[in-house]
Design goal:
The complex is a heterodimer of chains A (241) and B (238). Chain A is α/β, with parallel strands linked by helices. Chain A contains nine helices and ten strands. In chain A, strand 1 and strand 2 form a beta hairpin. In chain A, helix 3 crosses helix 4. Chain B is mostly helical and 238 residues long. Chain B has one domain. Chain B is built from 14 helices and no strands. Classes of the chains: A alpha/beta (241), B mainly alpha (238). At the A-B interface, helix 2 and helix 3 of A face helix 1 and helix 6 of B.
């Protein structure tokens, strides 16, 4: 579903992403881990077509992001880090706008998509509130609703549980899990337990390179008995310098 | 696609008090200038020239005010990442936003229609001239906003965006300002001064005020908008 081929991104002289390749099939939930600044977000931004890779490409549902970025954007649901939105709009207006841009032209289809997204993310109680007045948790859910709205075959979530309380985190995880069977999901996170709880695969990037690509069970088996963050630490030691 | 973005952006002005403050101040200023500096009554002529006369100067402040948020705000809040991961091309996004700002400024100009009604009540104006004045003002607003949209895309700070827009627009106004051209005439040959003046806004707006729609003036304003919007797209795709 999502095929990443040799992605490279240079910012000036610094190589932020260095030849990253992997693929994600439908039904997979890929946990994308790494220290801050390791290149997770940059990789996601390249897959979603927000920034242009220096080299390499990503193919999503058969569309090459460099040749046809709009087609790729059509099949991806993307939750950017910190869930940006138009703060002066109400939740309902905002989701209506997203539905409009996503090509749901007639009012009925649009309303139906918005209703579904609001229901899935439990936003009923704040739908008439402007987004800037919402708490972090609600804002994150609005970002989620926006990403799910068109029922995309590929979901890319940059730290979806960031800033949520433990209950909300569990809810979001359950939601991701429930949708995963027919979607390809990539999610980045700092929380290792989260990966173990929902991911079917782990990729760890460090200094722009993939250092681990395996199942959570294999990852745990690297150092039996050790805590996950200890294994993580030993693998990403290069980023701490 | 353009339509959806246009609608969001246009209504966006009215979601905050910005639109109302803008419209009230613009109308007060434009009509006030016509009355007090333009001698609207003293001229004893049934025309809106004293209203249109000040628009190139007023747009210096109001076009940047309407255009500064277009891209700077998207960049500051990070929503640009959302917008450009939706299935829209950069050109569609630029056009949608630009047209919204244009429509908003056009609305501000058109809301001065009670002036036209007053002229019609007091005298017997040349309605064709009134109409071409409005048409010209709207075309001119389009050129101003092209510049403002572009400068807005260059920064994430709305104040910087406003200041740069103001300065660039000021250059375009000065190029065609008779006082400036007069001063220029002292050092440059007539042909060169004419050429410089032709690059400015005012000489292309003048004929509209006098009731003439010259295709060359329309093309001038549309090209300023077109060129700046093209650069705008390039800047955003970079």
């Amino acid at each position: 579903m999502i095929e990443v081929k040799g992605l490279v991104k240079n910012f000036g002289a610094k190589r932020a992403v260095d030849n990253i390749s992997f693929s994600v099939r439908r039904g997979d939930i890929l946990g994308f881990l790494g220290p801050n600044g390791a290149g997770k977000s940059t990789t996601m931004k390249m897959i979603t077509g927000f920034i242009t890779p220096t080299d390499g490409t990503a193919i999503v549902d058969g569309h090459d992001v460099r040749r046809d970025p709009v087609a790729v954007k059509r099949v991806i649901g993307y939750l950017p880090e910190s869930a940006p939105a138009y703060g002066e709009m109400t939740v309902g207006e905002f989701l209506g706008f997203i539905a409009g841009v996503r090509g749901f032209r007639d009012a009925e289809a649009r309303a139906e998509k918005v209703e579904r997204a609001i229901r899935l993310t439990h936003l009923e109680s704040v739908r008439h509130q402007t987004i800037e007045t919402l708490s972090k948790g609600y804002r994150q859910r609005v970002g989620f609703a926006q990403a799910l709205l068109h029922d995309p075959p590929a979901l890319i979530l940059d730290e979806p549980t960031d800033g949520l309380d433990p209950n909300q985190k569990n809810e979001v995880r359950a939601l991701i899990k429930s949708m995963a069977s027919e979607k390809a999901v990539i999610l980045s996170t700092h929380i290792l337990e989260e990966v173990e709880a929902i991911c079917t695969r782990i990729i760890i990037v460090s200094q722009g390179k993939i250092v681990v690509d395996e199942t959570p069970a294999e990852f745990r088996a690297r150092q039996p008995g050790a805590r996950l963050d200890e294994i993580f630490r030993s693998l990403t030691v290069g980023d701490m310098a | 696609m353009i339509c959806t973005i246009f609608k969001r952006e246009f209504l966006g002005y009215f979601r905050t008090p910005v639109a109302y403050v803008f419209l009230i101040v613009f109308l007060t200023a434009s009509v006030g200038l016509a009355f007090f500096l333009g001698n609207f009554f003293k001229n004893n002529a049934a025309t809106l020239e004293s209203y249109f006369l000040f628009l190139p100067w007023l747009f210096l402040f109001f076009a940047p005010a309407a255009g500064m948020r277009l891209w700077a705000e998207e960049k500051r809040s990070g929503s640009i990442e959302l917008l450009f991961t939706l299935p829209v091309t950069t050109t569609q996004a630029v056009l949608g936003k630009y047209l919204a700002a244009w429509a908003f400024l056009a609305l501000a100009v058109v809301l001065s229609f009670p002036m036209a009604l007053t002229v019609g009540y007091l005298g017997d104006p040349d309605w064709g001239g009134v109409l071409t004045g409005y048409v010209g003002a709207i075309f001119m607003a389009g050129a101003y906003l092209g510049i403002c949209s572009l400068t807005s895309a260059l920064t994430r700070n709305q104040v910087i965006s406003f200041v740069i827009s103001f300065v660039v627009c000021l250059v375009f106004v000065f190029l065609g300002w008779s006082v400036f051209n007069g001063a220029l005439g002292a050092v440059l040959p007539v042909g060169a001064v004419d050429f410089v003046a032709n690059c400015g806004f005012i000489p292309h707006f003048d004929p509209f005020m006098k009731g003439i729609i010259d295709p060359r003036d329309v093309i001038y304003f549309l090209s300023v908008a077109g060129i700046t919007l093209f650069i705008n797209v390039v800047v955003l795709e970079r």
